From TrEMBL, chain A:
The lineage of its organism: Bacteria, Bacillati, Actinomycetota, Actinomycetes, Kitasatosporales. Residues 6-242, 259-501 form the ABC transporter domain. Pfam families: ABC_tran (PF00005). CDD domains: ABC_Carb_Monos_I, ABC_Carb_Monos_II. One of its GO terms (molecular function) is ATP binding. Keywords: ATP-binding, Nucleotide-binding, Repeat, Transport. SMART domains: AAA. It comes from Streptomyces tropicalis. This is Sugar ABC transporter ATP-binding protein. InterPro entries: AAA+_ATPase, ABC_carbohydrate_import_ATPase, ABC_transporter-like_ATP-bd, ABC_transporter-like_CS, P-loop_NTPase. It comes from the Bacteria.
UniProtKB/TrEMBL annotation, chain B:
The keyword Transmembrane applies. Residues 30-39 have a biased composition (Low complexity). Keywords: Cell membrane, Membrane, Transmembrane, Transmembrane helix. This is ABC transporter permease. It comes from Streptomyces tropicalis.
């Protein structure tokens, strides 16, 4: 191998009170996919920002093609050919595709933008990415997440990037879109571009990665391991310092689930364009999983059951009595609780404390004549926080300081206080690191064992199969199979899910 | 000057990164100097620090006032300042609720005018003191209710709805009064402005009670908690089971009610109702809320800060009047203060968020 394209040594970055990077080493060679692995808070985001020129390291050396460099601004990083594709894509929704691609380095003559030249160039870049069908004049806000990602990548290419950093790019993509992403990454690396790829998903790292660098607590704990042959258990133990596999709690050996009372009955529920004639039940103490691709109607069903969407036809009954359609208030009163897909934008009040977040749906419990009794509120939230083993167990802390897994626990804690009987979980482990996942799985099982019914949506098939008692497989808005989780395996579910779809 | 006071408190105890690491917060606990005050919300903490800065500004203004004019540092003048702060103060309370709840009310000045005109028509005055008070309160609350209903159930942004209401309510006030000033002949009503209780004008008492009630409502009740939640993240509030629409309606009705109270106070002071009363009060109240440290995007804010903001503005006006300076310079100073306050606010925020 030639001299590394990028080499970082002993990079340290301190923020007031936190040493976010505490000695990071990384070397990337041209034409490779270099995976960056680490729990949330291990320093991946800070590292990216250092490379993108958004943060300045306090110590350490960065070399680009063997020459020491400083990256004082994002523009400087771009000039060297380092481009970053952030998780929250930094595009201007109101501008066109071409305008976004050339944002900040518009092709202009005498101060006038040369639109047709930019359009042609942008079209060429999209063709290179295998998506000539995206119109360069379309407003970016109208594109899907996958489309936006492509625009972001086109922008990186327009800078003639030689190192592209991708922060969990697959998190916003559906299954077939991920395949396309991987194909593009393959083309890029074949052309000599290096890719730093960040992902929580082990199977992706195996598929496209060449080498892996593992971060833990701001430090490089392993550097340049072979991506395909390093055992998962070794990577996980490097990340966490302990050896955990995807650990699912055992299913209870209690009474036959069929004897437990039916909690939720969904009858012929339909919403045109989203899902058709969906019927199923959830019993007390049972975990029912909805498996399917993004866009197969899973989340929409959850939200319709919860009253956040109004069904065109069909009915939802909770413990025998019909639920008023389209009313979240009625659903919550009947004992439903939702942990939505996007924690930050749909569930949390980031300005507020953990306690205020947790008590939001049960405030009335703590109030007399509208006055909130802060003491009983605090003791109840402390209690819930302890029960879920949320860390740190101090409910007065701002909720935004929590890690992803603990934020999810705060959302679940909210529903503990309402005496929720049926918990609807939409992608409960998205953005949650491996160690915290196992905890969430155990927690969900514990809740079910205490008699709560759980309806679970997840894009990760092993998660649905490992956690749920019963699984509904969805495809294009219809339930195509209902079976016990033990009667299915991953490849069977994937077959059902993909069948007939254009992959 | 407040720049010197805010950073030490503002940056110290707040976790500085958005890493949200599982290990991070635990590690920070030991190293944060300002912890352990026992106050539940960090919000309260931020508010305290910011209010401290504003308080220092107010004290400095008083020093300037005392140095520039012999008449400033008298109890008589203090009451003058408080009395002139009373009307805009009550309006600002409602505005604070609306802005923390994620909205804005540009119609407050027009509602004051409409309330004032309506409660001083010959017909209303024939009902006497009680009739006039009820009329002003009802007009304010109903106009606010209409604002809220259109915003919440018509799904039109608050800026547009309340700017439309600003035009319509002012127009209605002009139509009712035919642009004539309507003299109040009910003596007991006018005496609201002249009465003193314990040596302090009744209007100042009204402001004090309104602030106290407003503070409790915002910081100690489910209503206040929901206001912060809806302003902070409307979608999350909806999915948490809050009735966002009903709450929005109540916020604007509350703002309208505050305008009704203000209309009574202002009409009593001027002993007449007129359609040009309350001109530009929307800007004065929003400015006070902003320099008081409330986020214009909602979700975070402080009522005490807003009231301090009102006092800062009225004190400036007072100093200018005592020194016979013209109002144009006053306006320039106001503008500078608003920009400076927002700059300081943003400094505080930058240390607080990633």
């Amino acid at each position: 191998m030639s001299a590394p394209l990028l080499e970082m040594q002993g990079v340290v970055k301190e923020f007031p009170g936190v040493r976010a990077l505490d000695g990071v080493d990384l070397d990337v060679v041209a034409g490779e996919v270099h995976c960056l692995l680490g729990q949330n808070g291990a320093g991946k985001s800070t590292l990216i920002k250092v490379l993108a020129g958004a943060h300045q390291p306090d110590e350490g050396h960065i070399a680009w093609e063997g020459e020491p460099v400083t990256l004082p601004t994002p523009t400087a990083a771009m000039r060297h050919g380092i481009a970053t594709i952030y998780q929250e894509l930094d595009l201007a929704d109101g501008l066109s595709v071409a305008e976004n691609v050339y944002l900040g380095h518009e092709q202009s003559r005498l101060g006038f933008a040369q639109r047709s030249r930019m359009h042609d160039a942008a079209r060429q870049l999209l063709r290179r990415l295998g998506h000539p069908e995206i119109p360069v004049t379309r407003e970016v806000g109208e594109l899907s997440a996958a489309g936006k990602q492509l625009v972001s990548m086109a922008r990186a290419l327009s800078h003639e990037a030689r190192l592209i950093i991708m922060d969990e790019p697959s998190a916003v993509l559906a299954h077939d879109e991920v395949d396309n992403l991987f194909r593009i990454i393959g083309d890029l690396t074949a052309a000599g571009v290096a890719v730093v790829y960040i992902s929580h998903r082990m199977d992706e790292i195996r598929r496209i990665g060449d080498r892996v660098t593992v971060l833990k607590d701001g430090r490089t704990v392993a550097r340049g391991l072979p991506a395909r042959s390093t055992p998962t258990s070794e990577l996980v133990s490097l990340m966490t310092g302990r050896t955990v596999e995807y650990a699912f709690p055992p299913r209870p050996q209690g009474p036959d689930p069929d004897e437990r009372p039916v909690l939720l009955e969904v009858e012929h529920l339909s919403r045109p364009g989203e899902f058709h004639d969906v019927s199923f039940t959830v019993r007390a103490g049972e975990i029912v999983g909805l498996a399917g691709l993004v866009g197969s109607g899973r989340s929409e069903i959850l939200e319709t059951v919860y009253g956040a969407r109004r069904p065109a036809s069909g009915r939802v009954r909770v413990a025998g009595s019909a639920l008023r359609p389209g009313s979240i208030t009625a659903a919550v009163r009947a004992g439903l609780g939702l942990a939505p897909e996007e924690r930050k934008s749909q569930a949390l009040f980031l300005h507020s404390s953990i306690a205020h977040n947790v008590s939001m749906s049960s405030l009335r419990r703590f109030a007399r004549a509208g006055l909130v009794d802060a003491r009983t509120e605090l003791s109840a939230t402390t209690d819930a926080v302890r029960r879920l083993d949320l860390r740190p167990p101090d409910p007065t802390r701002p909720v935004r300081t929590l890690s992803g897994g603990n934020q999810q626990k705060a959302v679940v804690a909210r529903w503990l206080l309402t005496d929720c009987r049926l918990l609807l979980l939409d992608e409960p482990t998205r953005g949650v690191d491996v160690g915290a996942r196992a905890e969430l799985y155990a927690l969900i099982r514990r809740l079910a064992d205490s008699g709560v019914g759980v309806l679970l949506v997840s894009s990760e098939v092993p998660e649905v199969l490992g956690l749920a008692d019963r699984v509904l497989v969805m495809r294009e808005g219809r339930v195509v199979r209902e079976a016990g989780a033990l009667d299915l395996d991953e490849s069977k579910v994937l077959d059902l899910v993909m069948e007939g779809s254009s992959v | 000057m407040s720049q010197q006071t805010s950073p030490p408190g503002g940056s110290g105890p707040l976790p500085a990164t958005g890493q949200g690491s599982p290990a991070g917060p635990v590690r920070q606990t030991g190293s944060s100097p300002g912890r352990g005050s026992g106050r539940p919300a960090f919000l309260g903490h931020m508010g305290r620090v910011r209010n401290l800065g504003l308080f220092v500004v107010l004290v400095l203004l008083c020093v300037v006032g005392a140095l520039s004019s012999d008449n400033f540092a008298t109890s008589q003048n203090a009451l003058v300042i408080l009395t002139s702060a009373a009307v805009i103060g009550v309006i600002t309370i409602g505005q604070t609720f609306v802005i923390i709840g994620g909205g804005i009310d540009l119609s407050v000045g027009a509602i004051v005018a409409l309330g004032s005109v309506w409660c001083t028509t010959v017909a209303t005055q024939s009902f006497g003191f009680g009739g006039m008070v009820f009329c002003a309160l009802a007009v304010g609350a109903v106009v606010g209710l209409v604002n809220g209903l259109i915003i919440a159930y018509g799904n039109i942004v608050a800026f547009i709805v309340t700017i439309a209401m600003m035009a319509s309510a002012r127009g209605l006030a002009e139509r009712i009064s035919d642009r004539q000033s309507q003299v109040v002949t009910v003596e007991s009503f006018n005496s609201l402005a002249s009465t003193r209780f314990l040596g302090i004008p009744l209007l100042v008492h009204i402001l004090a009670v309104a602030v106290l009630v407003g503070w409790v409502l915002l910081n100690r009740t489910t209503f206040g908690r929901r206001t912060f939640a809806i302003g902070g993240n409307q979608e999350a509030a909806r999915l948490a089971g809050l009735d966002v629409r009903r709450h929005t309606v109540m916020l604007y009705a509350l703002s309208g009610l505050c305008c009704g109270i203000a209309a009574i106070m202002l009409t009593a002071r001027t002993t007449s109702g007129a359609s040009n009363l309350g001109d530009l009060y929307e800007l004065d109240s929003i400015a006070a809320v902003i320099i008081g440290g409330t986020l214009l995007t909602g979700g975070r804010g402080s009522l005490v800060g807003s009231i301090l903001g009102v006092l800062v503005f009225t004190t400036i006006t007072n100093i200018f009047v005592l020194n016979n300076l013209t109002t144009d310079i006053q306006q320039i100073a106001k503008g500078l203060i608003i920009v400076a306050a927002v700059l300081i606010q943003r400094r505080g925020r930058r240390t607080a968020t990633p």
